[in-house]
Amino acid sequence: MKRILIAVTALGIISGLLAGCGGGNANPAGNNKPGTKIETACGTYWELTPEELYSMISDEMFILQYDSVKTGNIPATDLYIEYPYIEENIDKFPADKSTYIVIYCTQGSKSAEGASYLVSQGYSSVFQLAGGSIAWRNQGYPIIAG
User: How does pLDDT run across 106-127, given as a tens digit for each residue?
Assistant: First the structure.
């Protein structure tokens, strides 16, 4: 009886976590994306090195700096959202949830939180810059004031 109670409790906790994720990843077959696949309770995003991001930047991407201060932008950045106000600004994101979205911050921790939030909202092509703009700059890639 005790084992059944533990199993039911565990299932309830897991179900509650999944229910709070807003549908999870809308692209479960997205193994063909560049970067390192990061699985969260709410879906999947991909972590990119500066080299990977540099090689794939295009006008079709939506690039976001998500940080507590503006530290300069990676070229082609579309939007800056102050941390932790991503949820209040979700209306500024592309309506097409399959759009490639790249999110970065100074070191990578805030953008990882942001990437998790975006996949919880059903975005299926979310990428996060590993090491943030510091890693980008250390690899010799340009930063634009702004």
Answer: 999 999 999 999 999 999 999 9
User: DSSP letter at 29?
Assistant: T
| Structural domains present in the chain | 2-138 (3.40.250.10)
What distance lies between CA 139 and its chain's CA centroid? Answer: 21
Give me the numbers of helices (H) and strands (E) for the chain, helices first please: 4, 6
DSSP H or E run through 46: strand 43-48
Sheet containing 101-104: order of strands = 36-40, 43-48, 126-129, 101-104, 62-67, 79-82
- Residue 85, token pair as written in the block: 């106000």
Q: Which residues, listed in sequence order, are joined to residue 79 by a DSSP beta bridge?
A: 64
pTM beyond 0.90? no
Structure tokens at 83: 């941390």
Give the residue carrying structure tokens 């999870």. 24
Distance of alpha carbon 72 from alpha carbon 144, whole angstroms: 5
